[in-house]
Amino acid sequence: MQVYILAFIIALLASWVLTPYVKKLAFRIGALDKPDGRKVHHGIMPRLGGLAIYLAFVIAVLATMHMTRDIFALLLGGTVIVIVGILDDKYQLPAKVKLLGQIAAAFVLVLFDIKIEWLNNPWGGYFYLEYFSVPLTVFWIVSFTNVVNLMDGLDGLAAGVSGIASVTVILVALQQGFYPVAVITAALAGGIIGFIRYNFNPASIFMGDTGSMFIGYMLAAISIFGAVKSAATIALLVPAVALGLPIMDTAFAIVRRYTNGRPIFQPDKGHLHHRLLAMGLSQRQAVLLMYVISAVLGIAAILLTEVDGYLAAGIIACIISGVALGAKKIGILNDR
Asked: Among 108-112, 267-271, 274-278, 303-307, which stretch is predicted with the lowest mean pLDDT?
């Protein structure tokens, strides 16, 4: 059996088995999500489901990979972000405190020399970042961490979109011969997909910030790890395109709040999934539609690895234009 398949199966089974126990733990420690005017669920729900994803990921990685310095750094950084998530799921940390925790987790990778040091010039050569390497790495990790976090608004949404993005990264890693990246990402995908069994509508548990921040952090960390080992910017580009839906949704949220004079970090009901619900779609229909869009973006990400610089730029331009037109049509920039 291929190692990446084994890592996927181990993580999937571990997540499937561990989630009910994590659910009990969430009730015991009071890591609960109460409904309010912005949320779409109506009863008290246990959070902390991401702990099962994290544990499944760690078990699968330890069972299938040698403990190198790089693997240790990924596990350590993931552990730091999970601790921040657990505290937030229980105590609802202030945004600034949570951001500091995310930055601390990002610096774990920097301290182990896992950072973005160069970018490919699509038409030949490299751009060396030098002094910009550390701030760009931290920005990249924190951005991904929050993008998945902001997508977690409907049952199964963040998990499904992240699972699709993870599978996309696996396929490209195998295509390009980045086998360690494929194994690590397979462990992440297995943990996510095993958890969806309990998280799809009607959900019995939420992943909480423990899960959304861990998944976003790991996808960012894996992309940097792949870029370092392969000397190819495509390792950074693929997950960014595969997660294009939540990335664009976050960008629109920032623009919407800024233009309407609201704090950028103040939650609202203007996200894509809110707009789809307002159009009359059910939770399941909205989530499945966003799965389809994410799958299309995943296919586009795979195509980017097979084309030259000009065509790649054209594909990205078409994606951005298509999303922007769709967002305008459903009024995602309106202050509602």
From this structure: 267-271
